[in-house]
Request: fold
Amino acid sequence: LLQDIIAEGAERGVFRKDIPAEMASRAVFGAVDELLTSWVLSTRVTPLAAKAGPLTSLFLEGLQERGKGG
Reply:
């Protein structure tokens, strides 16, 4: 399902076309899996929901700083 969403986003020009949808979906799944695992195994000082924004931003906006040309 996630792979299909990413592929459709690439077709519509929302997501980058140079990154295969399968690779992107696996990266998202792996990051979410690691985030959940580390949270469960930690002392859970930070609410899990507080980590959703930065992770979402990382994948939707990429690592490039805003305003910086590639």
Q: What stands out?
A: The chain is about 60% helix and 0% strand. Residues 10 and 17 are 5 Å apart (CA to CA). The two ends are 31 Å apart (CA to CA). The chain has a mean pLDDT of 86.
